[in-house]
Design a protein that fits this description.
This protein is an alpha/beta fold and 364 residues long. It has helices at residues 56-63, 148-165, 178-183, 197-208, 225-229, 243-246, 265-268, 283-293, 305-314, 359-362; strands at residues 8-9, 14-16, 21-23, 31-33, 48-52, 68-71, 76-79, 82-88, 96-102, 105-109, 131-136, 168-172, 193-195, 217-218, 232-235, 251-256, 273-275, 297-303, 318-321. It folds into 2 domains: 8-143 and 280-362, Metallo-beta-lactamase, Chain A, CATH 3.60.15; 148-275, 3-Layer(aba) Sandwich (Rossmann fold), CATH 3.40.50. It is built from 10 helices and 19 strands. The strands form 3 sheets. The chain has a 7-stranded mixed β-sheet, covered by helices on one side. Strands 1-2-3-4-5-6 form a 6-stranded mixed β-sheet, with no helix packed on it. Strands 14-13-15-12-16-17 form a 6-stranded parallel β-sheet. The radius of gyration is 20 Å and the shape is globular. The relative contact order is 0.14. The structure holds zinc ion (2 copies).
């Protein structure tokens, strides 16, 4: 009889039967190892959680009082004879890949990751393994990121232009990861940074965790519109089109997302400017990351799994598509719908389940 694999895909999530734990399960379980605090990876209702130390305060803020143990990168935890350790995924602050080892067999679960060093998340580290379970949100050749410094130059120039034109500047990015990455790269000589409450709460959680961030001011009903107009407003996707955002009119509204790399994406979000900025690996990043693991087989959990696994098989990898409920926080609170016909650069449809990120439902 064939040996049971160390990790398997179940209707609750990725499961290790030997170690009796799940990785990023989407249904309640006894023992959950969590890659990072985005809502499609960190669900409520588990009895025990294990995550990276820098995810601690955000998890507590988002999930309430949970039974949480945190570890540093590289620290090993034994679970029923199986060793579990976390390695940097470079996706957002505190994000981790999960390495699972038993009797010399090694699996790594990527969670979400990017390979560019964003200056605030511990940079991605490839981990050698036999089997690699990888996301592929942007697993299409059209997705190629520029170095972030170029994108931030565009953003800072746009902000200066808005100041010159006397309009407010509203920049949208999801609240965990993108917002802090933007904050740390804004040119603060331009003015002050004002935040929506969801972003400010996330920043405060990270500060409690010892993360150093540039100063921000929470927007409240008392905030002076004239003062706010002289700065920049950081807002989550859930605020787009709401009365909260409209009260800053006239404004220019920019949207930061990897999806801005395709035509039509900016218009669909009614944004004035689209900035290509993603916390996921681009096409080359995915391939280099998978290659660097030296893995025998790769399992693709979310994104363009069909296209990407076909390509990997063509270039000699043993690649498989698996079905999971991981979504796409780039579309946070705006669940991804397939773009209208003809708007993608080719006809391949996005495969990822359309759950989106559930932040809006849980903690707003
Ligand atoms: Zn994520
Ligand atoms: Zn995700």
């Amino acid at each position: 009889m064939a040996k049971k694999p160390l990790l398997e895909f179940t209707d609750r999530g990725i499961y290790c039967a030997k170690g009796k734990f799940y990785i990023d399960p989407w249904k309640p379980v006894d023992d959950a190892v969590i890659t990072h605090a985005h809502a499609d990876h960190a669900y409520m209702g588990h009895k025990h959680y294990l995550a990276h130390h820098l995810s601690r305060e955000v998890l507590l803020y988002r999930l309430g009082e949970i039974n949480l143990r945190t570890v540093e990168y590289g620290e090993t935890v034994m679970k029923n004879g199986v060793s579990v350790s976390l390695y940097p995924a470079g996706h957002v602050i505190g994000s981790a890949q999960i390495r699972v080892e038993h009797k010399g067999e090694v699996w790594v679960v990527s969670g979400d990751y990017k390979v560019e060093n964003d200056g605030i998340s511990t940079p991605f580290e490839p981990v050698k393994c036999h089997h690699f379970i990888s996301e592929c949100t942007f697993g299409m050749p059209v997705y190629q990121w520029k170095p972030q410094v170029q994108t931030f130059n565009e953003i800072n120039n746009w902000w200066r232009g808005n100041l010159h034109n006397g309009v407010a500047t509203v920049l949208v990015g999801y609240s965990l990861g993108k917002a802090q990455r933007i904050l740390q790269n804004l040119d603060l000589f331009n003015g002050k940074v004002y935040t929506h409450g969801v972003i400010e709460n996330t920043n405060e959680a990270l500060l409690r965790n010892g993360v150093l961030l540039n100063p921000t001011a929470r927007i409240t009903p008392e905030s002076s519109k004239e003062e706010v107009r002289k700065g920049i407003i950081l807002a989550p996707p859930s605020s787009v089109g709401t009365p909260w955002m409209r009260k800053f009119q006239p404004y220019s509204f920019g949207y930061c997302s990897g999806w801005m790399a395709i035509r039509g994406a900016k218009r669909r979000r009614a944004a004035d400017r689209g900035f290509v900025l993603s916390d996921h690996a681009d096409w080359d990043g995915l391939i280099s990351a998978i290659d660097a693991t030296g893995c025998e087989s790769v399992y693709l959990t979310h994104g363009y799994t069909a296209t990407f696994s076909r390509y990997l098989n063509e270039i000699g990898f043993d690649a498989h598509e698996v079905h999971t409920l991981y979504g796409d926080e780039e579309e946070e609170e705006a669940p991804s719908q397939p773009p209208p016909e003809g708007e993608e650069l080719n006809s391949l449809k996005k495969v990822s389940p359309s759950g989106g990120d559930l932040e809006g439902a849980g903690v707003l």
